[in-house]
Amino acid sequence: MAPRYAPSLRSRLVPLLLLLQLGFIAIYAFWTEIQSNVNPHGSNFSKIYPEFQDVHVTVILGFGFLSTFLVRYGFSASAFNLLVAVIATQWAIILNGIESFRGKIRLDLKSLVEAQMCTASVLISIGAVLGKTNPVHLILISLLEVSGFIFNKWVLQTVLNVQLLNSIMMLHIFGAFFGLMLAWILYRKGSEQGFEKEKYDHRSGSFSMLGTLFLWVFWPSFNSVLVDSGNPWRKFGAVCSTYLALAVSAVTAAALSVLSSPKGKLNLIHMQQCILAGGVAVGISMSVVHQPGDAMVIGFTAAIVSTVGHRYLKVLITNRMTILPMYTSEFLTVLYIPDSNATCISMP
């Protein structure tokens, strides 16, 4: 069967990229400024910059390698991931700055981190439509979703008085549902059948697993970066809770993968999709998780739902829809809310 190539994007992609970037340059030139009272050698900078690096690696390398699971879309997907990430981050900085606009949008490391957290929501969504969209679609999707996510964050903070940490950590739920909406909108008759570019093999799966490992390693920083740094015990508790939830979900996913396999073998796809479920689920409940047992129960339950969903519910959703099993587990946090007055995790 001859490959199905998309028509030339030269007349659409190049003008769109140049217009967007020239517009961003104009906005940043006239309406933004770098915060001048930041000391590069101060304690605040030395604390925030390593966390910014961790989030940066998560967004660029983690999601970049994770998106290489398609055989004929691997190299393109990693490049498109970088392109979408940098455009979405620039747009998110502008929209986040409008909330506190006082003549100029002030840039600092915290604003960069918040913008990249918003970008992560976009990268979650486009994983549902990889192989069925071109770069023009992905860029337009990123602009639309960042705008919607920041508006949703503003509503949560101003109308419902939700804390900044909780409103931004909704990125998993927002990204998952936005991805499902995209899949529904882009659905065409016959699209449920597998196409040539949707196939995967062991090589592409290995690169995608590398992205999962990047995400697994840096997920504690991703969950704790917005926790109040003035209270080191809260940040330490967030890191411990995330790591414990990730560890439990990895072990549970491995056990259930072998149990559900007809040949009793460990399924790498199950591991790839489900070992992050604990970290994703505990992220949304970070403000009320104070005990190690709470985080471990959340990780255990999330891994069960994610693995079983990936194994048995896959036939009920669009083939290759990888976001639903991992992020559905996050909704379990509304069923399990620990006592908010419990003592914090203590150091051994």
From TrEMBL:
A single Gene Ontology CC term: plasma membrane
Keyword Lipoprotein in record: no
Topology within the bilayer: Multi-pass membrane protein
Transmembrane segments: 12-31, 55-75, 82-101, 113-131, 138-156, 168-187, 207-227, 233-256, 268-289, 295-313
UniProt keyword terms in alphabetical order: Membrane, Transmembrane, Transmembrane helix
GO molecular function: ammonium channel activity
Subcellular localization: Membrane
BP-aspect Gene Ontology terms: ammonium homeostasis
Record PANTHER family: AMMONIUM TRANSPORTER (PTHR11730), RH BLOOD GROUP, D ANTIGEN (PTHR11730:SF120)
Name the UniProt record assigns to this protein: Putative ammonium transporter Rh type C-like
Biological source species: Scophthalmus maximus
